Amino acid sequence: MSYREEVLNRVITENPRQPEFHQAVREVMESLGPVIDANEAFYRREAILERLTTPDRQIQFRVTWVDDQGNVRVNNGYRIQFNNAIGPYKGGIRLHPTVNRSVMRFLAFEQIFKNSLTGLPIGGAKGGSDFDPKGKSDREVMLFCQSFMSELYRHIGPNLDVPAGDIGVGGREIGYLFGQYKRLKNEFSGVLTGKGIQYGGSLIRPEATGYGATYYTVEMLKHFGDDIKGKTVAISGFGNVAWGTAKKLEQLGAKAITISGPDGYILDEDGVTGEKIDYLLELRSSGKNICAPYADKFPGAKFFPGEKPWGVKADLYIPCATQNEIGMEEAQKMVANGCKFLCEAANMPTRNEAIDYFKENGVIVGPSKAANAGGVACSCIEMSQNAEHTIFTEDDVFEKLEAIMVNIFKQSVAACEKYNLGDDLIAGANIAGFERVANAMLMQGIV
Ligand code: NDP
After folding, report:
1. What's the pLDDT score for residue 23?
2. Shared-domain flag, residues 253 and 322
3. Domain containing residue 26: CATH number
4. Ligand 1 pocket: which of 104, 112, 167, 216 to mutate (most atoms within 8 A of CB)
5. Rounded to whole angstroms, how far apart are CA atoms 96 and 262?
6. What pLDDT score does 99 carry?
7. Catalytic site residue 134?
8. Of 33, 190, 257, 272, which one has the fewest beta carbons inside 10 Å?
9. Statement: residue 177 has pLDDT above 80
10. Helix ranges, 224-258 (H)
């Protein structure tokens, strides 16, 4: 059995009932063949893969708060500090009922490689809770965030661990978390990113992940002799990442033709553009489902209740909602519709068997850890802005973000060339991300 298989088996045995974590580790272990197998005895002696797949630290805690009816409520809180070989831990906080230890672990593990690919000094972490902000009052969300931070504040800091937003955590939640941290520590520091621009936040941070994923898509198309202009794009979700993607696509002469939520999806052949995006943002901040009201307001749009948008014929597919939205059934529909490119803006939206099917059918997949790294890259720009006690302009941030995304794509392609991986951008990204972290770990001794 190869060293990579041994470590994968160990991860599965030691972490039972954590399918998302196993899935993320399996994908990386499969990709690392050309690097590890060529030097297996060395990496085995250094236990580099065991060290890489075992978190530095994981914190699980009770979050107790009181709802508007006076009932005491209890949720689970998590922070997984996975690897800080190249910089302080960095990764979002997710608030969603599906959050559990497996989801947290997979996200923190992926974050190691993503952060490495940005070329910036940030390590991998993730946190969150099974609290559902949907349908809660502002007061309830504030009380939850304050309670969550009352434990988390002991474990984070501007040079230690800098959380950000993710599903269910936007500007409002970051504000409440930051306020509580400031109160408990009695210091004003850049301990969280995604802050309001009034108190240290970066311009375009909310849109950065979607913008970055679109820049990555542009590079991917260019590399394969194609162009984003005029493309129709099926996207899922309508959160931060989806609206940034829809907006940037429009700016670059393409158009998103679908959006989705837990209630189904919308097909709008005229494009989800301009005032429609503004309307969706309004709906989203009201906490309501978006699809049905969208179809009522814009008569050209069709609403497909309970379905996902992956049966739609489009030039490009950019999933922007959540993990494992694309399985075998969806992949088969997409390939039958002529899918050539898939860019993963959400984290791990595609199941491993669907990835294999895409590869067999010549579909180019831009993996999430490369394609959606724009969010964390912009967060790092926010960290340097805070450390320098300054404000970067919108042009500064755009320029840095675009350069980082282009560089991520180039690094992945360079790894594909170095190891003869053909067009396998997934393996290219995993290897490029791995090499930087592994070298830093080796240079720092056995810690
Ligand atoms: P948001 O909470 O803003 O939006 C998430 C979107 O996905 C919403 O449309 C939501 O629908 C939908 N969604 C969430 N969970 C589910 C589910 N279980 N089933 C169906 N739909 C679901 O999150 P973001 O846009 O910030 O994040 C989207 C994805 O991008 C996630 O995978 C996240 O990890 C990833 N990502 C985000 C980054 C960021 O900067 N925000 C950075 C890098 C990656 P609804 O709200 O109606 O439930």
Report:
1. 98
2. yes
3. 3.40.50.10860
4. 167
5. 13
6. 98
7. no
8. 33
9. yes
10. 240-251
Which residue is closest in CA terms to ligand 1's atom 42? 375
Helix (H, G, I), strand (E, B) or coil at 353: helix
Where does the pLDDT of residue 285 fall: very low under 50, low under 70, confident under 90, or very high at 90 and above?
confident
399 falls within a domain: no
Above 80 in pLDDT, residue 128?
yes
d(CA 192, CA 221): 34
Domain that holds residue 65: 3-188
- For residues 179 and 250, membership in a common domain is answered with no
Any idea what DSSP says for residue 188? -
Q: Is residue 251 part of a domain?
A: yes
275: tokens are: 């005032």
pLDDT in tens, 180-189: 999 999 999 9
Kindly state whether residue 290 falls inside one of the protein's structural domains: yes
Asked whether residue 229 falls in the same domain as residue 351, the answer is yes
156 shares a domain with 254:
no
Closest-lying ligand 1 atom to the alpha carbon of residue 373: 43
Please report the atom of ligand 1 found closest to the CA of residue 260. Answer: 9
Do 173 and 54 belong to one domain? yes
- The mean of the pLDDT values for the chain is 97
User: Is 372 inside a domain boundary?
Assistant: no
Q: Is the pLDDT of residue 289 over 90?
A: no
201 DSSP 8-state letter: P
Residue type, 46: E
207 C-alpha vs ligand 1 centroid, how far in Å? 13
Q: Of how many residues is the chain composed?
A: 447
